[in-house]
């Protein structure tokens, strides 16, 4: 760390007064710095240079469009980052704001509006590395892979009689049928076929991890941080993330919360009937249930929590399928 601090001081023309390592994972190192010119979050991302440029350029584009993202501190030579151990290091403005709480329909409506603003304003962004981060190219294979994953999990575990597995098997046929239904709608969607081939400037950017830990608020403003997973994709990906976290906090499926979220979203980013159809296709597909099985999340849960999780996911899926059929 000492050599990094020396390089920061030389490159940015500042003195580091104190620092604190906040997080270190295989993907990144995050450090808080108090310096002679202010407070910053420093981040080393263990990513290819192309990926790093894509993230920085996406952030810069969205800032210009009015999305509140902490600024980066440029070096004395006006560079956006320095290299440390062959990896890019960036200093971001530090915000001492509180995290957004998914505590009420009103708060969820605010988050929906922010998400809609971000998605709408992201249209037009282009990058020479864009095809590397085009989520649309992966949908067909991901749907097939998730269907296969559900089938394989059932085959591997069909002889297990413990109560936890019995609870999962009670819901598994329903989720497999829902997955097949959503997949059929995806294959028959003319809009999906057209969207996949559209120029990337007509694709939305998705944050990829739109959770309340990455939303900071003060005086009715909300800043979005941690853009490591940003990519071109469809709004359902970020909406699903918000909805999943809200359901987890409240412990059950809540139609009112979703209505608040989607209504506020659509006020900022109106979607056509074809786009709404694709949105509900993706929300109806049991991506979260498949991940629950594949990652063996049930091993960390007791029977009551497994039943609660399966029940709320099933109720959510049933709602999305109803909306999907209404738009078909």
Automatic annotation (TrEMBL):
The keyword Lipoprotein is annotated on this UniProt entry: no
Chain coiled-coil ranges: none
GO CC, any one term: endospore-forming forespore
Keyword terms: Capsid protein, Virion
The UniProt record lists the keyword Ligase: no
UniProt-listed InterPro entries: Aminoglycoside_PTrfase, CotS-like, Kinase-like_dom_sf, Spore_coat_CotS
Domain of life: Bacteria
Domain Aminoglycoside phosphotransferase: 30-262
NCBIfam families for the chain: spore_CotS
Name of the protein in question: CotS family spore coat protein
């Amino acid at each position: 760390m000492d050599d990094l601090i020396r390089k920061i001081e030389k490159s940015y023309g500042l003195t580091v007064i104190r620092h604190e390592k906040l997080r270190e994972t295989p993907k990144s190192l995050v450090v808080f710095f108090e310096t002679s010119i202010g407070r910053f979050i420093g981040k080393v991302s263990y990513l290819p240079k192309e990926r790093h440029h894509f993230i920085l350029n996406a952030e810069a584009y969205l800032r210009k469009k009015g999305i509140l993202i902490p600024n980066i501190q440029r070096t004395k030579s006006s560079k956006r980052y320095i290299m440390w151990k062959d990896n890019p290091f960036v200093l971001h403005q530090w915000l001492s704001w509180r995290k957004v709480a998914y505590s009420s329909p009103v708060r969820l409506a605010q988050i929906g509006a922010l998400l809609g603003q971000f998605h709408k304003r992201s249209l037009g962004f282009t990058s020479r590395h864009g095809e590397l981060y085009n989520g649309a190219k992966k949908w067909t294979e991901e749907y097939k892979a998730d269907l296969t994953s559900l089938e394989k999990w059932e085959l591997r575990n069909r002889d297990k009689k413990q109560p936890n597995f019995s609870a999962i098997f009670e819901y598994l046929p329903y989720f497999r049928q829902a997955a097949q239904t959503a997949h059929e709608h995806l294959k028959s969607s003319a809009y999906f076929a057209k969207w996949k081939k559209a120029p990337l400037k007509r694709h939305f950017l998705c944050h990829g991890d739109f959770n309340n830990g990455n939303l900071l608020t003060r005086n009715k403003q909300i800043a979005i941080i941690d853009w490591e997973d940003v990519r071109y994709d469809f709004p359902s990906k970020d909406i699903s993330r918000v909805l999943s976290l809200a359901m987890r906090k409240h412990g059950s499926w809540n139609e009112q919360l979703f209505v608040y979220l989607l209504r506020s979203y659509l006020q900022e980013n109106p979607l056509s009937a074809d786009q709404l159809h694709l949105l509900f296709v993706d929300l109806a597909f049991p991506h979260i249930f498949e991940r629950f099985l594949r990652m063996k999340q049930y091993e960390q849960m007791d029977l009551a929590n497994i039943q609660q999780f399966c029940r709320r996911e099933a109720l959510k899926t049933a709602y999305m399928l109803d909306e999907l059929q209404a738009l078909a």
